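Quick one:
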Amino acid sequence: MKSFRITIILFVTLFAFACNNQQSKKAEDRTIVKKRTPERAIIKKPELAVYKEFKTCEEVIKEILTTSPRYKEITKGLSKAVIRNGGLSFGVSLEGSPNPKQDKAQSYSKTYDYTVFEMYTDRQLNAASFSFNPNDKKLYEYDAINDRLNNIEFDRNLLLKYNSLCK
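Output:
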């Protein structure tokens, strides 16, 4: 009988400490502040892209690029890798456009040409190049080794937005 009482007291004591430990963990979880990385700022969820309001053709095309599976594959973990290698961040820039002044592109091109780059303190390293051809409405990745454009998949629902905005 005495050992039964000791067992019950020990069980109640351990239970009290276990509950207190769980409550302190919940309090700690609420105080965690997550730093927003550039990677999270760039990548958008494709299911929300269809309902997003676009003002320019360039915005729709950038959405087509940044929601494509190939872009996501290339940029997954890229921010952490760049920072681990002493870099600052990564980004996407519009290099060429059919309307360079309107789209704030660097030069004229028949296609919308984007470059994914890694930014370091002493240099900018280009990681990948993509093009969207407005004539055939296809997205391409530039293969520098074979010097050719490879057709890549993207969310075709965004073409509805592109067609309605960019006639």
